[in-house]
Write a structure and sequence with these properties.
single chain; 153 residues; mainly alpha; 8 helices; 0% strand; elongated
Length: 153
């Protein structure tokens, strides 16, 4: 998960009953907004209103919207590339690629996130794919490694 993410419960500061939420609740609601209405519909204000908490409560879990988007992508894509380790490289590439396709179809908002900005969650996918190719005996050229790095930055 991105570095600024925190998990302690927070009070909203509003009068009335104390509203406690969790990072998981914040991510579930944010993911639902993006899935149903698209990336542009997700704002920190909108998210806090839908959660019934103050915006400061949401900022108690993530520092900013970019961090929220990274956390959504990490939540959905977190286990990507972990299946099929016992398979040969060609089958493993197919399994990992199909897993990515399946997850992005299940969570179209995450596809929008990873296609619209650099997403750290895709680093794991990229490294998994490169590791499979390394294990198969393909060599990374310095030029391609530099190109991948500069594309990510």
């Amino acid at each position: 998960m991105p570095t600024g993410i925190r998990t302690p419960g927070r009070r909203s500061g509003r009068s009335g009953p104390e509203r406690v939420t969790s990072l998981e609740t914040v991510l579930e609601k944010a993911t639902a907004i993006v899935a149903s209405e698209g990336l542009n519909a997700l704002t920190m204000r909108r998210l806090s209103e839908d959660l019934g908490v103050s915006a400061m409560t949401v900022y108690g879990y993530v520092d900013n919207k970019d961090e929220l988007l990274d956390a959504i992508a990490a939540r959905v894509l977190g286990d990507l590339g972990q299946q099929g380790r016992e398979l040969g490289w060609e089958d493993r590439l197919a399994v990992v690629s199909e897993d990515l396709r399946r997850l992005l179809r299940l969570h179209p908002g995450v596809a929008e996130i990873v296609l619209s900005r650099p997403a750290p969650a895709m680093d794991t996918f990229r490294e998994t794919m490169l590791s499979i190719l390394d294990d198969a005996g393909f060599e990374r050229s310095e030029e391609h490694t530099s190109e991948l790095q500069s594309h990510h930055d």
